[in-house]
TrEMBL record:
It comes from Acinetobacter larvae. Keywords: DNA-binding, Pyridoxal phosphate, Transcription, Transcription regulation. InterPro entries: Aminotransferase_I/II_large, HTH_trans_reg/aminotransferase, PyrdxlP-dep_Trfase, PyrdxlP-dep_Trfase_major, PyrdxlP-dep_Trfase_small, Tscrpt_reg_HTH_GntR, WH-like_DNA-bd_sf, WH_DNA-bd_sf. Gene3D superfamilies: Aspartate Aminotransferase, domain 1, Type I PLP-dependent aspartate aminotransferase-like (Major domain), Winged helix-like DNA-binding domain superfamily/Winged helix DNA-binding domain. Residues 7-75 form the HTH gntR-type domain. In the C-terminal section; belongs to the class-I pyridoxal-phosphate-dependent aminotransferase family. GO terms for molecular function: DNA binding; DNA-binding transcription factor activity; pyridoxal phosphate binding. It holds the Pfam family GntR. The lineage of its organism: Bacteria, Pseudomonadati, Pseudomonadota, Gammaproteobacteria, Moraxellales. SMART domains: HTH_GNTR. This is GntR family transcriptional regulator.
Amino acid sequence: MKNIKHSSKLHLVTTHLEALLNSQTLSYGAKLPSIRQLSRQLAVSTSTVVEAYERLLVQGLIYTRPGAGYYVAEKHNISDIHALKINPEREVDPLWISRQSLESSSDLLKPGCGWLPSSWMPEKLMRKAIKEVAQSSVTDLVTYPHPLGYLPLRQLLSRKASNSGVTVYAEQIMLMDSGTQALDLIFRLFLKDGDCVFIDDPCYFNFHALLKVHRLNIIAIPFEQDGPNIQAFQEAVQQWQPKLYLTNSALHNPTGAALSLYKAYQILKIVEQQHMVIIEDDIFADLEHHIAPRYAALGGFEHVIQVTSFSKTISAAIRCGAIMAKPIWIDRLINLKVATVFSHNTLNSKIIYAILTNSQYRRYVDHLKIKLQKHMTQTINRLTALDIQPWLIPTGGMFLWCQLPNQLNSTALSKACFKAGVMLAPGQVFSQSESAQHFLRFNVSQSQDPKIYQVLAENLSILTTDASR
């Protein structure tokens, strides 16, 4: 309790000083109140004032003259970290959703974003885990970890993988700072400029963005309600001779579909014949109600690499991901990891482990799945009332892939709604096919505010009227 009181008083003093620095009354070199003066004024101890001044000092916002007090270092507005202005007219590309979601104000409604609301996340589990990890030995807090990462977490991931029928040992798992970083490392190892990679059509928009960064030839394979179109896959293999196929097997992003056993076997046969590699992004496993087939479960890791992370169910701020592959590839990936990023955040790995092994985590996930299912039904009902139809009814997860009425353009609708404070996810960022222009992806956990449907209705009406002219 004493620490809490100290923290709140320190915040009071710091806030007061920041307000002074932000004001128009103090110029460069102006003297700030003395320690005793500010202590009396704010009714706090002199030690609290000293700590507040020290914090501003290390930030370079004030400076001190020995024996003469503290002074304004420069005219600086503490809160004025100029964010890039959001341009609603910017090109709608694979990074459009991420940029708009991350850079916009907190009052923007985000049914198009890819994460759960903050209030849904396991805050108590996170705080407990962070406190627990903070008690680690000084060696654990300051030294580099083993290149593969924290062994207890790798062993836990090995056991969790068996829930999906995947057999993988801890020595075949390498921890990374995120799923995206894991994919980037895999691309560096296997690909060079101009190599061909297959993706699903539609697929997660950041797959497009990351593949373009690596200057790869991207071929999109039509994705159906039970997986990729087999004929299109086979014909494209013969024409393009791809190196990799990047996909989600379970709770596919953006469609919410799940891979069927039949298609999984057919794709694996083609991949083995062509000596391709499947990159199976499996970040939604904890949100499944029914376990979908995994390529890694059916074919092992001879032609498959799995990637996972924890940003969807635990925290996007505690970055941690993992690569699962056969030993020879893991060994090469270790070399590349050391050469490019050297190490990873092992404290995050330990925090994730502490959360996953807490007895409350399973209950949290079970409750989360029920909550998502409820919101899925509510969102479908609200959207169908506007004649926005789901492509399929997902068996779990957070995403709903929907078709607009009257062949309306989802990009035009998204830009119009963004101006009204609602960020949507237009089909164009997930696919370059013409049909995708009439689709939107909805995150059902972020789609409960009535304003979303009011804005949708108003702009659907405007676009329909314009189209009929």
